[in-house]
Specification:
The chain is built from two helices and no strands. By secondary structure, it is mainly α. It has one domain.
């Protein structure tokens, strides 16, 4: 595992996650703003894409991202906060 790639991917997840929450809060008070909604859809899709990529390469960031249908593998790997920084 390349720790630099892992860190870079996590950083993108943090940044897009922040953007998703930020624009969602704006949309709470401006629900008809089509430009903000388009931006929300864009950053949400990127956020989910990066989370999926991270889970495939390094393991899930939370238990809802376990990718196995045969066995619950969440406890079989190091937890996200135990992984190399």
């Amino acid at each position: 595992m390349n720790s630099s790639d892992c860190r870079d991917l996590r950083q993108k997840i943090y940044e897009y996650g922040f953007a998703v929450v930020d624009v969602a809060l704006f949309l709470d008070t401006h629900p008809d703003d089509t430009e903000a909604l388009a931006y929300y859809n864009e950053v949400r899709d990127k956020y989910l894409e990066y989370r999926k990529l991270y889970a495939m390469k390094y393991g899930p960031l939370n238990m809802t991202e376990v990718l196995s249908e045969n066995r619950f593998t969440w406890i079989e790997q190091r937890l996200p906060w135990e992984r190399e920084v």
